[in-house]
Fold:
Amino acid sequence: MTEKAEPAFSSVTVTNAAGNRVGDGKIAVYPHNAQELHVALQPLAPGVYEVHWQRLSADKHQTQGQFSFMMASN
Structure:
């Protein structure tokens, strides 16, 4: 996908293992790459997190997906 992302029509949800959201839900286009979306997260405790995303580009092309990541303890 080479078109600029449209944050008003996109979503990113980050949840912890209990299913609680850990992001503020405010999506922004990354200033150095208009194809990337970013969402602010609260400080994360060790554990597994899931990201569900849906992206609409300027040309109305929609993509979606999900992935997991793990925060390890120190």
About this structure: The beta strands are 11-15, 23-29, 37-41, 47-56, 62-71. The mean pLDDT is 86. The chain has one domain: 7-71. DSSP finds no helices and five strands in the chain.
